[in-house]
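re: ur question from earlier - yeah i can do the single chain one, its not a big deal. heres the input i used so u can compare w yours
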Amino acid sequence: MLPKLTAILSGATGDRRIRSIRVLEFHYVTDLMAPAQHSDSELGEQEHLPNEFFSEDMKALFGLLKGWEERLGGSERVAAERYQLSLFLGRGWGTDVPDLPLTPPPTEDIVRAPWPDVRYIGEEKLPELSLVSWVTLCERHGIHPESLMQIVSRMKYLDRFEGDIFEEGWSLGRTREYRKVLGECLHLLPRSISLFHPDFLPSVLQPRTLYPVLVDPQRDHLCISIRTLSCQLRKLNLSGLRISPAIFAGDGDGSYPDWSSLQEVIIGYPVISSTGQWFANRAPPEVVAYVDPDDDDGYCTYYAMPNPKLLNELYAAAGKAKQHTPSLKSMHLTLDVDIGKHKFIYYFNQERKRNMITLESGIPFEFSEEVAEAWGFSLDAVNSIKEGNMTFYEGGVTVNEVIVA
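and the output i got, formated as tokens:
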């Protein structure tokens, strides 16, 4: 791709000059082969080469975009406002890898370590870019989060940052490391960012680790760092991240940042928290279960029963944070359950001209006194409505709604 991009962006003048590119999808090239069993020195070389190739690709990409930006003329601010390039970053695969001959299957299992994520190891910083306003990370991009933040930090007027950051999968060590690194590096993001929409969902074939993912069991560093970042945001949209009430409460010392710009919060979170506690527990078979009629083995999926204590702690922390967000228009907190629904929504009801809270749940749920106090409503004022059929797998939900201050 780089030779084609070079021909497009460099050297053209006059009528042949490219004046506008709205979307650019760039895939750095890596090897198809996963590292087999080798000595430590060979493995080190195998890991170093992809980093070198990736670094050269990034330097070439940024160099081309910077050169094009300079040839377009005008100030950095003009470039940022006029061109607004959307950049997609992902991993490609080499096309010159020879076909391997077919061989009999091995008599013993061969353990192959997966490739580590690539890092930027260039000695010099990448040039600052003014024309990139939107960055989207493609699925399984394979870039280490520290290098990812360093790369994005060079986009001076970036407005939107979204996509797969990393997968919170089965590897406890990797998940803890990446959460720690990302928490330490979020401050590198440009101050211009107003929309932050990262995705942490693992692949279908890679379940989550069930252990706590905090390096320090007393401090959810990543959630606290995201909370700090949200001071500069207009919209925060988290998907698949294991969270705790620290996403709203921070260290719990009662202090709150300046959230005057924050207008919208959307968080979709799994049933297990970052501390290893469960926002929902599997219901016993006699309560609710769905049997797949097309499965000859009688496969059952059991509904997750919401944990009132932990969920109310989260909702109370959200309510206390809401008191410091004067511009907030809506908040959606969606628990990711296999079957059914459990969704907390704060919004402005156009018909009633009032702010309201709605909680939709496949299992009846009651707010605590702490939630009512934090959000400014009376428990007696909560209106509970049953919608649909009584069984969860037929679409039945209980809706709690209440007007809030």
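The first strand starts at residue 23 and ends at 30. not sure if urs matches, ping me
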